[in-house]
Amino acid sequence: MRALKIGALVVPYLGAVVAANLLVNHFGPSWSPVIAFFAVAAVLIFRDSFADLVGQRWLAQVLQLSLIGAGALLTYLFNQDAALIAKASVIAFAASEMTEQVFYLLMRGRPWMDRAPLSALVGAAVDSVLFISIAFGFNFRLVFAQWCAKVAGAWLWARAIQTMKSRSEVRSLDALD
């Protein structure tokens, strides 16, 4: 069952990474905060779900790095003109996901709805600085706008996932009656 849940997260995770990369490549840096709100924030929160499902930290890191590399490769295969975006993406995601994982694990005793958005604060900062700097050259306003969009989006994605988890738990309890 756990492997099925992990597999079910892979498709939206990779879809969000590739969509974010291709959309930023197509629309340019001015659209990156909007894209970050929807797609990149989802990736930050999906990472936390992977961590919980996989369990073993080293295995979660291997899976995460594999998915980050796959997202960059798929981006490049879909559009070779997006090579710089794919490079910026793989570097920024790898650094931000590993940083976020440290903060997520440090808050292990707290409820998921606290850990996921709070760890995304740090991951979003690392991702924003690195991605914008590599892809477009450092621009404080753009980095800040992206960070704000990712933090807001991460909170909304976490809320949506928490709601789905709660509904699933209620259905499981109803089945026991």
Outline the fold blueprint.
Blueprint (H helix, E strand, L loop, with lengths): L1 H26 L4 H23 L2 H22 L4 H24 L5 H25 L3 H37 L1
Helix pairs in contact: 1-2, 1-3, 2-3, 2-4, 2-5, 2-6, 3-4, 4-5, 5-6
Summarize the structure.
The chain has 177 residues and is an all-alpha fold.
Write up this protein.
With 177 residues, the protein is mainly alpha-helical. It has helices spanning 2-27, 32-54, 57-78, 83-106, 112-136, 140-176. The chain has one domain (2-176). It is 89% helix and 0% strand. α5 packs antiparallel against α6. The longest helix is centred in the C-terminal third of the chain and has 37 residues, at 140-176.
If you compute it from the alpha carbons, what radius of gyration comes out, rounded to the nearest whole angstrom? 16 Å
Give me the number of helical elements.
6
Protein structure class: mainly alpha
Nearest-integer average pLDDT: 89
Dominant shape: globular
Q: Unreliable runs, pLDDT <50, ≥5 residues?
A: none
Q: Describe the biggest sheet?
A: none
The proportion of residues in beta strands is under 5%
Order of helices and strands: HHHHHH
Number of E strands: 0
> What fraction, in percent, of the residue positions are helical?
over 70%
Terminal CA distance: 22 Å
Number of domain modules:
1
